[in-house]
Amino acid sequence: MQEVFDSGMKVRREVLSDAHVDRANANKDEFTEEFQDLISKYAWGSIWTRPGLDKRMRSAVTLTAMVAGGYWEELAMHVKAARRNGLSVDEIKEILLQTAIYCSVPAANVAFKVAKDALAEYAAEEE
């Protein structure tokens, strides 16, 4: 299981950034530690490491899922991750336009605002 965890942490750092993972780890406590380990092992170590989809496609799917679920903080984080994984701003826009049809116009409206702010933060971080 340690190998899965280590693989997950590697991908998690590549996708979300060292700074994000370091913050998450620094905020771990007795109550949240097992949840953080679960995320690293299963979401990142078992799913994101699978060969069936590349990181770009996984990001596209994840953006859609965040909009569908209304997980706005997670959407912001994954918009930045999508850029790290090679999605262009135009591709992110197209994904959000698609969510307007399949998730709802109100959800896409919020998503565009969240994404716009996240893209600005990403651009500032890259300078």
UniProtKB/TrEMBL annotation:
Broad class of enzyme this protein falls into: lyase
Any one GO molecular function term: 4-carboxymuconolactone decarboxylase activity
EC code(s) of this entry: 4.1.1.44
Pfam families, A to Z: CMD (PF02627)
Domain Carboxymuconolactone decarboxylase-like: 34-117
Origin: domain of life: Bacteria
Keywords: Lyase
InterPro entries noted in UniProt: 4CMD/NDH-1_regulator, AhpD-like, CMD-like, Decarb_PcaC
Name under which the protein is recorded: 4-carboxymuconolactone decarboxylase
Source organism (scientific name): Micrococcoides hystricis
